[in-house]
Fold:
Amino acid sequence: MNSNPSQAAAAAHVEPTLPDRVAALELFAQQLVFVLDAQGKLNADALMRWMTLARERMQATGSAPPPQVNALARLQQLLEA
Structure:
């Protein structure tokens, strides 16, 4: 099936869904951890320790809603994999 240039341009400008945006942020975080670790700026283990501490403080102080803290925990699991 052939598409004309205006159809291709319209498809390129489709607004991403929330799941697309979440997946993009997860991919970005994975790449960021890789780059920081590879450059010796912050190793992955230190970042995971910091994320754990940050989540614990969020839970203890209630500074972030529990669903967001849970989402952060899920992101951390993805980054550790």
